[in-house]
Design goal:
The complex is a heterodimer. By secondary structure, chain A is mainly beta. Helix content of chain A is about 15%, strand content about 45%. Helices cover about 40% and strands about 30% of the residues of chain B. In chain B, the strands form three sheets. Chain B has a six-stranded mixed sheet, sandwiched between helices. The chains are: A mainly beta, B alpha/beta. Chains A and B meet through helix 3 and helix 4 of A and helix 2, strand 7, helix 3 and helix 4 of B.
Chain lengths: ~350, ~250
Amino acid sequence: MSAPDRAEHLWRYTPWHRIHPTGNPDDIPVELSPALVNLSLLDGSEAPEEVTISALDNDIERDVNDDIAAAFIRALPASGAVKVTIPDGMVLDQPLLLTIEGGGDISGIQIEISVGSNSQTELLTIIESGVNWFGLLRSGTIHPSAIFNDIVLNRLEDTKLLRIEQFNLLSDCQAKFGTIGVGGSRTKGDLRYFLTGNGANLQVNGSIFSAGEQHNDHHVEIMHEISHTYSRLKWHSSCSDKSRTIGTGMLRIAHGAKGSDSAQVFNNLLLSRDAEADSIPELEVLENEVVGCGHGTANGPIDEGQMFYLQSRGFSESEAQDLLVASFLNATMKEMGGNTIHNWLDKLILGGAYTQT
Amino acid sequence: MSQDGVLVIKNLHASIAGEPILRGIDLTLRKGEVHALMGRNGSGKSTLAKVIMGHPDYEVTSGSVTLDEQNLLDMEPWQRARLGVFMSFQYPQAVPGLQVGNFLRKSVQAIRGESAPNAREFRKELNSCMEKLGVEKKFLARYVNDGFSGGEKKRLEILQLMLLQPQLAILDETDSGLDIDALRTVSTGINASVGNAACLIITHYQRILDHVNPDFVHVLIDGKIVASAGPELATKLEEKGYDWLEEGASA
């Protein structure tokens, strides 16, 4: 299996060997520990029996991109693969919670997700454990008129994470995909979303907290393949110590995708001199009749005006800085799902700072 | 003027980027007094407010500022706030991601410390203040000043004034950008808060002084207070402008 050229956009900042389990691109590890997967409701009760999780062979409905990383995860032996099915019309007040725990030294899993038509559900996936390497391949279809909020929370310890994702959005669905990164030593994410049904509505949000010597590289591709589709990408990364975050985006509007409305923005908060953030939003617009197609990026330290304002309200310098960093990450985290899931995440990640009074 | 006030400013000189702005301010405010500070744009009114609050861009080159005989100039802005200094900003900062309700709760905890109300009492207090200011409950779920209209920003500033219960309230052009009804509502909030505090209202207009009756009116020209008198001074300024004082100051 040949390694991708470093010059390719996707691998520019995290060459394949740096995210490979052994560092040798020619290796395909034969020893792989299966990940433990558990599906429940967020309040700890059992998931409804109509929502199923079952073993999956590799004949998934839509071929995931054939890039090296996806092929690599599929090629791993005994990696395990499951399918989560949310039936048509399913409406859940409580979010679903999918916990994934890697075991051993090298671990991974492939998950196919099918979200039924006219359903209204939220799914929070938490990846945790102290394995050295974890591979996560997620793919799926959001069927017509479904409303679906999906959040992936990386709580890995000193782990390299390779995360590949590809979702297909059908007509009139409303899907939000959120990424929260607080763990792992090195993360490479390749997240792709295809709007293939008229009226499909997509929001992608990222809240990435990098510290120490963490390296977080996320590539997000959004493809408007048909007319009257909508997408927004908002990605917030805070970088402290010697950490590095990278956000690259590709927004493509296909020829004939008239009335597409899209925008992407990457914001980076730099908290130390040694931290580094790179953001490259890119556009490829092949259709003239679009509602909008914008992109932007902003990097900077904490705003001095905000610091003074908070200090004038009694917050010490360190309290004000912590509050501003948390608020910056919360601005995107709040957009990822409803109040139940937000309050739960807030308590877990931000210590309950933003649970509504 | 006796020196037993809450706030005592003596011969205060301050500059920004080497440019002198304040050129010898003397001012004393006592508990329960409302002072109005007026003057043309660029005269140094907002600079005085920021220097008292401890804005890092300004350098105090000489003079002193004390609150209850404690030297404010040795303190960080948050220490001044915890001691009881409150400044209502002319242009309050937006903080996306920080919800108003949580911000207010944390700020009250930080400033009122051990005497801060518990969660239930805080909600009661908050609801009462919001009712007085005509602020809807959904306001609490919004992000601080993010996408707020001018009037909403000023209401949030006064809501903080009411909840934080300072010893010294500095209101920097709180009336600017308010319509007549909003001005009346905001003034009600100010009047409800300043009974036990010393209050310095920075303004260009007589109209807020019709609602918040000042005990003293001061005029700042070129970084110096050139006139101090009762509320009749504001009326005279409204009629005659600042030229007559400028001529006096030059003479």
